Amino acid sequence: MTTHDPAAVSPSVLDRARAVWSRLTGTDAEFAPGRTNVAVAPASLLSPPGWTGLVVLGDAALVTVPDSPTAGLVTAALQGLGPDELAGELAEPGRLRERLPFHDLLGPAHLLFLAPALFRPAARTADVERVSGDDPELPALLDRCGPGDAAESALAGITSTAKAVRQDGVIVAAAGHELWPHGTAHLSILTDPGFRRRGLAAQVASAAVADALDQGLLAQWRARSPASRRIAHSLGFQETGLQLSLRLADR
């Protein structure tokens, strides 16, 4: 399995990725190469409200916290920890708990981005169609997959049309993107549990990626599971960073 390798990502893609995630902080916080920056950002979208959000992109890390006391605590806890070391601890949150005790966490998630020249479309073995966002079969697919998979996929939040595969009129796999800042297409993919391991996720994802690239958008893939990362890799996405959100323990 490919791991976090900032050297493999083109500078232009990395710069765009950092601009996107900097915007999500709601402040003027920026990624600084070789540094781990901590910013007070109560409205940050890097994490749920009141939590601490950590993102590593390439050789730079950005951490957002809800208030100044938490900023002091986190800065002290991460003292001397560079972005590469922080990426290692985000991948294994048990190690990070020793520095930053926490009650709950979301993640870790791998962030992958695609340079257009590296796109490798998936081979088609099924008919992939364009589906309107108000097609009633899309919420039906979400229901069949359950709240956990549905939320992780973020398919309900896409702003594009969906690319879908049907079986007997029922949508069994779908993908699309939500438009994020700086012309970024945040990909969402979901497959009916009864139709997984048939290559359908790769096919609908490939069609959704092609649509995003045709619009000149930066394609972003967020993956928690090895299976999701494998699909992203097969399409040419590169490991660019990691994301984690923490609800810190009271001290």
Automatic annotation (TrEMBL):
Which SUPFAM superfamilies does its entry note?
A: Acyl-CoA N-acyltransferases (Nat) (SSF55729)
The record's Pfam families line, in alphabetical order, gives: GNAT_acetyltran
Taxonomically, the superkingdom here is Bacteria
* Annotated N-acetyltransferase domain residues: 126-251
Name used for this protein in its record? GNAT family N-acetyltransferase
